[in-house]
Fold:
Amino acid sequence: MASTQTQEITAMLDAASAAAAPSVNSAALFQPWTPDLIRYLVVAVLVFTMISLVLSTLLLWRRNAHGDTVLKVFGIISIVGISAVLLVAGYNNDQLTPIVGLFGAIAGYLLGKEAALPRAGDAHAPNSALSQLKGPAVAPVQAQSLPRPAMPSGRKV
Structure:
C-alpha cells in the first residue's frame, strides 16, 4: 500500500513538473549545418578574404595609392571578411550584436575620416590641386591697393 501511494505521488510530481516546464520546440534546436560544413565555409571565407587582400594590394601598389586609401580598402575588406566568418561560425544574436556594432563603428570611422589638407606638390593626394588641374596653369590674381577715402576733416589716414 505504501509503495502504491509512493508511485502515485511520484507520477503526480512528474506530471506536475512536465506541465510546469516550458515546452521546447524541437525545430528551434535543429541545426542543419554539420561541423564539417561550418569548418569548410569558414576556411572558404578566409581564403576569399585573403585573395581579396592580395588583389587589392596589387592594384593599390600599381596605382601608387595614398596611405589613407590603403587603410580604407584594407580595413573594409578585413571587417567584411571577419564579419562573414563570425556569421558562418554560428554565433547567436547576443554574441554578434556588440561585435558587429564595433565593426560598424570602425567602418564608419574609416569611410568618414577626412584626409588631411594636401601639401603643395603632393601628386598622390586625391583632392590635391595638381590632380584636379585641367588646363593651363593660371597665376593667382593679386589684389590691387585702392586709394583710401579722405577723412571728413580732410586728413588722410
